[in-house]
């Protein structure tokens, strides 16, 4: 039934293959899909790739994800207009990887150039974020402001623009649905503490520590993203 895929936009290929099986009736309405681990083995892809594909199909209306129970075929798909990324759009795990690689370098350089004024700006953002942990939209706004403020320290408009643009790729119904499986006051609290570690390393003028703190933060964000969704949330690929 399922065919192993080549490594290009894998989550979209997985979603397309499942979508075809649903539309042709090979996967029946009301049926339960195989477990996430089994799907990843059949497709020959990672479990995060399967997770992304399933949420694409949930947003489109083809699937219903019941946490703790499984993933079921909807009886009457009702796609949401503009809910899914356009063709060749980057997946969330690709974006997190790109951010890890680039923002770690940005934090390293920021530690060399930080001024008391730039640190004060970061402190203000962190204070607002801490006060808004129970308000998801405010926490998200402060999270973006924190990362762009670090890029601002360098004074390179291209880096600043990149940081904002890549962060904004998550501002779609698809990403919002994906984030709904793991974001909340607890995860924002963890992110805040990680932000403080980045801030302290930059304020101390320690480039290597700043780079490592940012790398650790985005690695942990990816881990939270990965472990929060699926039938086996405590395991990793």
TrEMBL record:
It comes from the Bacteria. Keywords: DNA-binding, Transcription, Transcription regulation. CDD domains: WHTH_GntR. InterPro entries: GntR_C, TF_FadR/GntR_C, Tscrpt_reg_HTH_GntR, WH-like_DNA-bd_sf, WH_DNA-bd_sf. One of its GO terms (molecular function) is DNA binding. The keyword Iron does not apply. SMART domains: FCD, HTH_GNTR. Residues 8-76 form the HTH gntR-type domain. Coiled coil: none annotated. PANTHER family: TRANSCRIPTIONAL REGULATOR, GNTR FAMILY (PTHR43537), UXU OPERON TRANSCRIPTIONAL REGULATOR (PTHR43537:SF5). This is DNA-binding FadR family transcriptional regulator. The lineage of its organism: Bacteria, Pseudomonadati, Pseudomonadota, Alphaproteobacteria, Hyphomicrobiales.
């Amino acid at each position: 039934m399922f065919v192993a895929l080549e490594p290009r936009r894998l989550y979209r290929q997985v979603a397309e293959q499942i979508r075809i099986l649903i539309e042709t009736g090979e996967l029946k309405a009301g049926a339960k899909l195989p477990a996430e681990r089994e799907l990843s083995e059949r497709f020959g892809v990672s479990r995060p790739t399967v997770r992304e594909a399933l949420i694409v199909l949930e947003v489109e209306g083809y699937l219903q994800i019941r946490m703790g129970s499984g993933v079921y075929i909807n009886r009457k798909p009702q796609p949401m207009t503009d809910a899914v990324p356009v063709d060749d759009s980057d997946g969330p795990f690709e974006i997190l990887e790109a951010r890890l690689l680039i923002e770690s370098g940005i934090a390293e350089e920021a530690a060399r150039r930080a001024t008391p004024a730039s640190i004060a700006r970061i402190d203000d953002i962190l204070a607002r974020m801490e006060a808004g942990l129970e308000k998801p939209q405010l926490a998200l706004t402060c999270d973006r402001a924190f990362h762009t403020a670090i890029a601002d320290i360098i004074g390179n408009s291209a880096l600043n623009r990149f940081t904002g643009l890549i962060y904004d790729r998550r501002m779609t119904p698809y990403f919002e649905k994906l984030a709904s499986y793991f974001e909340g006051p607890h995860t924002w609290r963890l992110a805040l503490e990680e932000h403080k570690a980045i801030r302290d390393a930059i304020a101390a003028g320690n480039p290597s520590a700043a780079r490592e703190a940012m790398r650790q933060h985005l690695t942990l964000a990816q881990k939270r993203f990965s472990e929060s969704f699926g039938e086996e949330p405590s395991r990793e690929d």
